[in-house]
Amino acid sequence: MDGTDVTMLMREIGARARTAAAELAFAEPSRKEEALTAAAEAMLARADEILEANGRDLAFGAEKGLTPAMMDRLKLDRARIDGIVDGLRAVAGQPDPVGQVIAEWDRPTGLHIRRVRTPLGVVGVIYESRPNVTADAGALCLKSGNAVILRGGSESFHSSGAIHAALQDGLRQAGLPVDAIQRVPTRDRAAVAEMLRMVEHIDVIVPRGGKGLVGLVQAEARVPVFAHLEGICHVYADGDADLEKARRVVLNAKTRRTGICGSAECLLIDRAFLAKHGPVLIEDLLKAGVEVRAEGELAQVPGTVPAQPDDFGREFLDMIIAARVVDGVDGAIAHIRRYGSSHTESILTENDATAERFFRRLDSAILMRNASTQFADGGEFGMGAEIGIATGKMHARGPVGAEQLTSFKYLVTGDGTIRA
């Protein structure tokens, strides 16, 4: 497509989305639930088609030389399709957020005021290689009464298309406008630039991807953005940590899936923990095949690689982790404040006061105690799915589910009430 064609295409998509959003804003909860349930059934019926499309995407990714972590993000199999289906059903079964009363009160003037949830309108989602985002974003936007425009990465083009077809099957069955969930049908990057400028059609942009994509969106968008730039997640092993809990959590946080934003990228070990237990956490990681880029006394552990200054504050998204010794919880806090990305941090400790200090003095979107950072996920938070994890401080923060995709309005009732 040339630039004019892309501009016209995106304006048409945007206008159709705005029309669909106006209808979705007052759609009955039962119809939205029916659409998502039917989409889940369509996903199962189209499983072979989705896997065939994914095979084409995997071949394309291999030709492009994607990293193993990126290929893992891209890959679908029966188990992952089942996971997508489970997510659709979970979102379908959640309470509908639209119209929920957040707060209400009476004023001495005789006014009764309610603050109620209302859809944002049209959400634009720009994402890279994870085709499951197509389903997650479509489901959450529909549940929250928003139309959505999906622009997946070139790597997941065919997979996203097959999943999108199943979502539209569900909309048709429920009698909802198919334009409620639209997918940009081109790999042309000019479509991304258009979305970032479509202030008359799109109310918020959600980027899902690496630092390059998110940084571009944050720098160039004229539309408001929900985003996190990087997932530089830390695990801190305190001197009062339980050894076996710490060993389980550290291994899971790094190795379960290295290519997701909740993967641990830095291990901080209290000097007191090291004195009690030695470098057992480092040794566990090395045995699991993780490249440990260590500093100071940890660099003396056989098999580690000396850390470079830029290894701290770096999102590896691979079987690599940075590690250093810190002096107690305040040392960990100081390190995270300097190098963190406000995404997710976990403290491993049995000391309540230490955990409370960690929670109070850090301001990341998600703080955990004795739990793997891999739980930084909307599905694991009971949201059914997530459209992303926001690390900013305005509006949504942390996993962005259906409730976070709403704003609110005030409904004010009087009885011929006038202001003095």
UniProtKB/TrEMBL annotation:
UniProt domain Aldehyde dehydrogenase: residue ranges: 14-274
Pathway this chain belongs to: Amino-acid biosynthesis; L-proline biosynthesis; L-glutamate 5-semialdehyde from L-glutamate: step 2/2
Highest rank taxon of the organism: Bacteria
Enzyme Commission identifier(s): 1.2.1.41
Main localisation: cytoplasm
Keyword list, A-Z: Amino-acid biosynthesis, Cytoplasm, NADP, Oxidoreductase, Proline biosynthesis
Database matches in SUPFAM superfamilies: ALDH-like (SSF53720)
Enzyme superclass (EC): oxidoreductase
Locations listed in the record: Cytoplasm
PROSITE patterns: PROA
Pfam families reported for this sequence: Aldedh
Keyword presence, Nucleotide-binding: no
InterPro entries on file: Ald_DH/histidinol_DH (IPR016161), Ald_DH_C (IPR016163), Ald_DH_N (IPR016162), Aldehyde_DH_dom (IPR015590), G-glutamylP_reductase_CS (IPR020593), Glu-5-SA_DH (IPR012134), GPR_dom (IPR000965)
Enzymatic reactions: L-glutamate 5-semialdehyde + phosphate + NADP(+) = L-glutamyl 5-phosphate + NADPH + H(+)
Family stated for the protein in its record: Belongs to the gamma-glutamyl phosphate reductase family.
Purpose: Catalyzes the NADPH-dependent reduction of L-glutamate 5-phosphate into L-glutamate 5-semialdehyde and phosphate. The product spontaneously undergoes cyclization to form 1-pyrroline-5-carboxylate.
HAMAP family: ProA (MF_00412)
Name of the protein in question: Gamma-glutamyl phosphate reductase
Organism expressing this protein natively: Cereibacter johrii
Gene name per UniProt: proA
